[in-house]
Structure formats: structure tokens, C-alpha cells
Amino acid sequence: MARITIADIARRAGVSTGAVSYALNDRPGVSDETRARILGVAAELGWVPSQAARALSGARVETVGLVLARAPETLGFESFYMQFIAGIEQVLAERSYGLLLQVVPDIEAEVQAHRRWHAARRVDGVIVVDPRKDDPRLAALAGRDALPAVVVGDPEFAGDLPAVFTDDAAALRECVRYLAGLGHRKIGRVSGTEGFGHTTIRDLAFEGEVAREGVVGRVARADFTPDSGAAATRCLLEADDPVTAVIYDNDVMAFAGLGVAHELGLRVPEDVSLVAWDDSPLCQAAFPQLTALSHDVTSYGAHVARRLFERMAGAEARAYRDSTPTLTVRGSTGPPATAR
Amino acid sequence: MARITIADIARRAGVSTGAVSYALNDRPGVSDETRARILGVAAELGWVPSQAARALSGARVETVGLVLARAPETLGFESFYMQFIAGIEQVLAERSYGLLLQVVPDIEAEVQAHRRWHAARRVDGVIVVDPRKDDPRLAALAGRDALPAVVVGDPEFAGDLPAVFTDDAAALRECVRYLAGLGHRKIGRVSGTEGFGHTTIRDLAFEGEVAREGVVGRVARADFTPDSGAAATRCLLEADDPVTAVIYDNDVMAFAGLGVAHELGLRVPEDVSLVAWDDSPLCQAAFPQLTALSHDVTSYGAHVARRLFERMAGAEARAYRDSTPTLTVRGSTGPPATAR
Predict the structure, then answer these.
(1) Most distant pair of Cα atoms in chain B: their distance
(2) How many domains does chain A have?
(3) Does the ipTM exceed 0.85?
(4) Shared-domain flag, residues A172 and A240
(5) How distant, in Å, are the alpha carbons of A47, B110, B112, B139 from that of B136?
(6) Are residue B280 and residue B265 in the same domain, yes or no?
(7) Which range of residues forms the domain containing residue B29?
(8) B120 at interface of A, judged by CB pairs closer than 8 A
(9) Which of residues 41-80 of A touch B (CB under 8 A)?
(10) Which pLDDT does position A1 carry in this prediction?
(11) Which of A1, A301, B15, B65 would bridge with A84, disulfide CB 3.0–4.6 Å?
(12) CATH value at residue A35
């Protein structure tokens, strides 16, 4: 499959490469007749404008960038990112855009990647995930000449950039009320990575809602990986005064927690109720099936991509609320045995 | 963050943009003194050569492409692709390359994407996954002027392209021998998508090995999704003469199968033994933990990326065997109750 060049068209049409360039760029400098002949030859040869040439002329490079600042090996644990990317791809595919994906160790490296991509015109815009307090990425993406960007997270952590977010606080409050309503008096929470904006927001919502319900709330820190989720679950369940319900910040930690409960000889949900965040097909494959805060992550990714296209077209920075995760009750939650 | 252009450098250095171009491209046309001044100014401004300009000059665009021909929503089910991509990214990151990822509905659309990328110089090479018999992608990637490519799969399905593969037949044979050795006389297999090269290879290995061991082998077709895995498991376990062990073509189908076994009131492994393919952290989170054909998918992705760089540098097409998946025995397999 050879690439068709301007030289190929020039040769076939019997004109100079300059004439081909004028014709293809719809600029004066060739007669209408010659232009028509050149366009005919170009069409016949299946010519596609070079991305590089269009970038030089200031046009789009038809690529959107996503940097993930994580240890590469942690990516495979969560279905979240692949679902999210699948959603982005749905929208990009409609426009024949590609997604340029790079995994880097930390957000400082992410800032460098954005800078490099922008300088070298490799992307038309970027998606920023897991925003945190005083996020250095936002400063680097501020200003009139900056790369267009959309933040995936609460507007509180998005600076002056557009943000697409879910109301995690509302979702977590609903979950705490549900568990308290079942009779749970000691509720645990296995959190995601400390420092992430959404972890802070969920922490505050949890703290506020357990106080409002007059129940005990305990938080064990983890980092979204199964191992950390298992360790945090042990902490909560092997305490002298263990919790009878646990809410997790993602699905794989809830899975790992289910394994720990089985290992400790605890029945689910009689001895301990478990709730996952980000429902996934695996939540339904578990036994018992996992109650989850369901969110359509693929639609979320698609929503973010649409907002980025709007931003690249010059839209003002705004905050867009995506649908709030809702509680899907399955077999892993019920009244605590002690209250029965 | 503004992009530094040749015009900015020219202005600051007090020279023409042509002079800047000569200097930056290391071509004659400016004095050594002027060249030094221009390079100094460029360094001071933090200039990075434009990707577009380098592409036009025939240099690399420092991007590798991967098209996934699947329904986007199925991507989130399997940790395989995210782990595989994480491995690719490890190698790309060392070279500051990006991965251009596009999800398309079928391999005909994949051929179009390759063609478009090549014509528009958006990638330096591509990775082709899930090769099948008479794969139209191979023809489109054949020839001297074609986009450099590496096939992830058995050389039998890779045409004249380099291939990186695992010896799935050996892995499956080991697994059948292990189960037969435990006393299983009726072994099931829940397969991946029909038509994929590796499905065919595993089918043949399974058929051959059950015959050699003198046991009954039954295949139920699925497509890597949890729902299909659950349905196939029901087929195998609800038959009049059910199997006592099931080997799955990935991890999420094995998970779904575990859920079905629980649902049917079957004990694992006493009533039915289960084996997953592509070990993942989730296999260890399950209860009982899943015996699996373990393969380091992240390393596999890294291996593929390294071979693609070699190919882009002009290496001959060869077949490279990656490590063979090995059986990791955990709690989901044991002797069948009837043989105890």
C-alpha cells in the first residue's frame, strides 16, 4: 500500500508539484482547467491530504491526547479506563479522530508530555483525568495559546478549564443512607488514592452522612488495586469492633474484599455487606453479585470527548454534570445478622 | 503555554525565517556564527521541532498505531487489552513515542484506518491483533511501501509479516493433562470468538489432547464476554452428562462461570473444576482463587512494541515466540468428587 504524494499526482497530470499544491489547497495560481485535471488525477489515485502538511498549514491534526499518570501495570486492574477510552473512541470514530495515549510515571511527566505534544503539534486537545488540589497540569494548560483541554473531575479541581464530573457526594450519601436503613451501625469505606480530588469529595460526603445518620464511619485507605483493597478490608473486618458494611471506591477492590470476607469465614451479606463503585460486568459475575454504585463509564467517556470537541471549537469553560451514579442493589448487601 | 515557532526564533535572533530553517535543519546557507546564535535562541525559547515539519521532511512522526476491531463496549470487560497496552506504553515511553488508538467496528474498517493513517503519515508503524484465516489486513500491509507492521498471533496467520506469539497449543495441552491427571474424564472448553487464529489453534490442541488422554472433550462457543461465558458454562454443566472441569479462553468468562457454578449449587472444585486463561489480579480475588494459564500480558505488549521498533528500523520478518503460558494451580481445581 504505497502512499500517494503530490509528486505522483504531478507526474501523472503532467504539471509541476507547485501547480498540484495550488490546486489541492484551492489557491490561485493555476487555470480552472488545470485545477480540474489535477483534482481528477488526485481522486483517481486515492490521494489523502498529508496530516503533516495540514498541520503545517494550521489545520487540525485530528488527534486527541490522553496521558495516564500511573504505573503501567496498574492499568490492567481496572475496567474503568478501558471503558472510558471506549466511550471516547465512540465519539472520535464518528469524526475519524485518533486517540494518542501515553502512560507516564507522574503528573510532572504528564505536564512535559502535554508541552511536547503542543510544541510538536501532535494533538488538537487533551483530556485531563484525576485532578487534585493545586494541580500543576492546570497552570500549564492555562492561557490563550494553551492546548484546549477538558478536565474529568469536579469543577472545584478544574481551575479555569471546562470540567465534566459526576456528583459523587450525592451517590455516596445515598449509599450510606441505604446501609443505615438496613440497620448497619458501623460502616466502613475503602477509599481510592489520597490526594485525588474525588477521594476528598467522597471522604467529606461519607463523614457528613454517617454523622447525620448517627452511625459510626471508618475509612481505610487504598489505591484502587486489588491488593490494597484486600488489606484495607482486613483492617476493617479484623478490628475488635468490626464494621458490618463496606463501601469501596471501585469494583476490583470490592472483589478483593469479597475474597477476604470468604477467607475470614464471613457470610456475605449476613455478616458483612459490600458495595462496589463503578458497576462492571464482573460485579454481576461475582457470587453473591455485588451491589454497586452504577455509572455508565462508556457514556461518561463519550460525554467528555464531546465537550472537548466543543472546547476545541472555542466554547467557553463550563462545568458539565454527567449522570449521578445510582445504587444497584444485588445480593452482596442486606441487614446485618445482629439486627435480624 | 504558547508554541514556539520558527518566526519567534527569527524575530528574537534578528534573522529571516529561512535562516532559522537552515540553521535548525543543519543545512548550509548561514554562517557558523549566525547558526550558533540561532541555535542559542532556539534553546533559550525551548523550541521543539514541529512533528508536522519533521513528517514532511520524511522523518518519523514518533507514533505507533493500534486499531481494535471490536464493539467499544466489550473493551471494558477484559483486563487483557489494558495490560497489553500498558506493556506497549512502557517501551514507547522510553522513546517518547505515543500510541494512536482507534476502535472500529470490523477489520474492513481497520484496513481503512491503516490506509488513512499511512496516507496522512499519522503513524510510523502498526500493531495487528487477533489475526485470522485469509486476513484482509495482511494484504493491505504487504509490499515494500507498506506501513511497517507486527502481527500479534501465530505465524501461521501472519503472512509475510513479523509475528509475536505464544505457544497456546502447548499451554492447553498441559492444562488438559493436568485435569486428566486429577481424574477428570469429561472436560469442557469455553472458547473465544470463532474465526480468530488462536481460537482455532486452541481448538485443535484441545481435540488432540483429550483424544490422547482418552477422555471426553466438549467445546462451547463464546466470545470473551461474561454473558457468553456464563451461557456456555450453563450448556456444559446442565447437560445430562455434565463435564467435571472447564477450561476458559480468558479470565472474565471463567469468573462468570464461577458465578454460574455457585448459582447451580455446585461446589468448586469438588463438583466442577475451573481454569482461566490470562491470569489477572481478579483471578486471585475470586473465591476460590482461580487456577489459570498465566501469561505476563504486560511483558507481551512490551515485546511486541520492541519487535515493531526493529521492524521500523528495517528488520526482516520473523516469528518471535513469547513465553508460553504456564499453569498456576489455585483453589478452583481439584479431583472430581466422583473419583474421590
Answers:
(1) 90
(2) 3
(3) no
(4) yes
(5) 21, 10, 11, 6
(6) yes
(7) 6-48
(8) yes
(9) 46-56, 61-63, 65, 72-73, 75-80
(10) 41
(11) A301
(12) 1.10.260.40
